[in-house]
Amino acid sequence: MPKTIVMTGVSSGIGRTAAESLAKRGWRVIGGDCNLVPLHGVETRPLDLGDLDNVKAFAHGLEGLRLDALSLNAGVQGYDVKARTAQGFELAFGVNHLAHYLLARLLMPQIAAGGRLVFTTSGTHDPAERSPIPPPRHANAEWMAWPERDPELDRHADKAGLRAYSSSKLCNILTARAFAAGNDVHIRGVRVFAYDPGLTPGTELIRRGPFLVRRLFWPFLSAIQPFSRGINSLADAGRGLADLCDGTETGDLVYCSNRRGKLKWVQPSALALDDDLGAKLWRGQRGDGRFIGGLAL
User: Is residue 160 scored above 70 in pLDDT?
Assistant: First the structure.
């Protein structure tokens, strides 16, 4: 009987490469995506990560299915913080973090003993990476959900949008670490990872970006990728995700980075290692003591 994985963001980029790779390895791959692009060997089902009710419905459709792996890979990047989810949360925080957190909580009981839970994150969460994308300042759930409440919100729209992206990726790591520390995970031997695929041109991540970024910068990076040590190919980034999901790659840490096609097990940023910060995000409490969207983060 083939092993089964559920993966988000399979219509293009890293997710598509990983999903098709796993299908070729004999896995049953169920892809959740808002764009139902036909993929060889992949069963796609509609999933709108911008609507938490739709996320719940997607998970409900998987009830009773034993999973060997769950890959939370989809992501969006914006150049402002105006876009909102169906529940009114800032889009990058809602899609990249909240939707995937909820999906992980709903499907974790169905992950088999020895299975894997993999969050796709980003090195942009770490100031030491010196990425052109501004790093997170905090992981305050209220300020990320409603950026207009953040007293230090960047004045420039593009900088605020990009920082919202890196902050959501910090949340992915904090959430992965929280899951990895859970008793149920230890008892069942489920491995939890946060995967940084590295800078990978050719994805649809910047689809909401400015014209020059989409038409000039992104194609330029693709052209120089074979000659740059700091840029990964889609094949390398996708294979790294597939290898993590099926157990080909493993390590003792939660966080790993893909650099030139090789996974390196390293520590994330100081913020990502802050257990108090992670606990506050996990609870998801706002200043008035209520939970964001009724979700106990």
Answer: yes
Among 16, 169, 173, 193, smallest CA distance to 115 is for 193
Contact 221, 199 (CB under 8 A): yes
User: Residue 213 to residues 119, 217, 221, 224: CA-CA distances in angstroms?
Assistant: 26, 5, 10, 15
Q: Output the pTM of the full model.
A: 0.90
**Bridge partners for 256 per DSSP:** 195, 265
The residue extents of the domains of the chain are: 4-294
If DSSP states are collapsed to H, E and C, what string results for 178-223? HHHCCHHHHHHCCEEEEEECCCCCCCCCCCCCCHHHHHHHHHHHHH
Given CA atoms 122, 32, 211, 82 in this order, what sign does their dihedral have?
negative
Confidence at 294, pLDDT banded by 50, 70, 90: very low
Of 48-62, 75-89, 199-213, 265-279, the least confident: 199-213
Domain 4-294 is in which class?
alpha beta
